[in-house]
Amino acid sequence: MIQFGHIEFFWAFLLIIVFIALYLGYIVWKKKAWQRFGDPNITGRMVILKSGSRPFLRFLFLLLALTFLIGGLIDPEVGSRLEKVKRKGIDLYIALDVSNSMLAQDIKPNRLDRAKMAISNLIDKLNGDRVGLIVFAGKAYKQLPLTTDYSAAKLFLSAVDTKIVPTQGTAIGSAINLAAASFGENDKHNKAIIVITDGENHQGDAIAAAKAAAAKGIRVFTIGMGLPGGAPIPINKNGNKTFLKNQKGKIVITRLNEKMLQEIAAAGKGAYARANNASVGLDKILQRLNKIQKHEIEEKQFTAYEHRFQYFLAVAIFFLILELLLVERKPKWTNKIDFFGK
């Protein structure tokens, strides 16, 4: 297992691209300067001690030194001791609607982005709980299996958008069924599903799916994304921003199906919360989740990490020394060779 002590220094790798661009620019400038001075075939033979490959090698050594120096700053840490640890928590799947209607901006900046921010805040508040992510539109897909790696969960969450599921629709029932099947067969009293959606154009029997999940001891919570008045669905058409229209040319208004989401939560023995511009409602759901019986789970994880930055710094110093020892001029013994001939 590898982790990084200072991931904020990853941006420094951009310096490598900058240095390569500057070096290539210098090569082009130098070539043009030689051409202005005279015929390159003649001037090249006159400067007999000038090496063609050594300047490139010096640059290469500097580039490698910089690369390993940045690697040292990032401070890779390798897991050195794997132990069994015990934790108490629940298993939670978040099913997030990524259909185009979630782009509506009645909740700022839009329904989907606001939901993602709220989920990220929820993950920050978890302690010992396992969390997984399911995305759905016309179909449901498991984006992330249950994990206690909250950093990984937030990374997967950041990649979610409406393009991740090609089929449009709102398959809430499929999302609930997929989540229920993904929990496994351990304790039946420590599982929950949170469905975050506007509920519009839903497919399948979501209420039946919630009842089936509740029968397995899985509580289903719902959060309605959208305001009663609804909002148009923004789209990008030929590079221009406009709104989705129906076959009659009228702008489509997407509205929250609150009644259906309340029925799903009731069938799943959970609770319903409606989002607004002040709150998404996850705090209310989190309070309910904290009341769910938490069980003790034993798992293996790394409990000790060893720093490896010193190896990267040593290699960086090695290449710096090589660069200092390598001069651009050819050795003096090359003077004895008659380059021009007789």
Q: Shape, please?
A: flat
First CA to last CA: what distance? 66 Å
The number of helical elements comes to 10
Q: Quick check: average pLDDT?
A: 82
Assess the beta-strand content as a share of residues.
15-25%
Q: If you compute it from the alpha carbons, what radius of gyration comes out, rounded to the nearest whole angstrom?
A: 30 Å
Number of domains: 2
The main pleated sheet reads as: 6 strands, mixed
Structural class: alpha/beta
Which CATH class of the largest domain?
A: Alpha Beta
Low-confidence sequence ranges: 333-342
Written overview of the protein:
It is a single chain. The chain is built from 10 helices and 13 strands. The chain is flat. It has a 6-stranded mixed sheet with strand order 5-4-3-6-7-12, sandwiched between helices. It has helices at residues 14-37, 40-46, 54-74, 111-125, 150-158, 172-182, 206-215, 258-267, 282-290, 309-325; strands at residues 2-4, 76-89, 91-97, 130-136, 140-147, 191-197, 218-224, 231-232, 234-237, 240-243, 253-254, 272-274, 295-307. Strand 9 (234-237) and strand 10 form a beta hairpin. With 342 residues, the chain is α/β, with parallel strands linked by helices.
Outline the fold blueprint.
Blueprint: E1 2-4, H1 14-37, H2 40-46, H3 54-74, E2 76-89, E3 91-97, H4 111-125, E4 130-136, E5 140-147, H5 150-158, H6 172-182, E6 191-197, H7 206-215, E7 218-224, E8 231-232, E9 234-237, E10 240-243, E11 253-254, H8 258-267, E12 272-274, H9 282-290, E13 295-307, H10 309-325
Parallel strand pairs: 3-4, 3-6, 6-7, 7-12
Antiparallel strand pairs: 1-2, 2-13, 4-5, 8-11, 9-10
Helix pairs in contact: 1-3, 3-10, 4-5, 6-7, 7-8
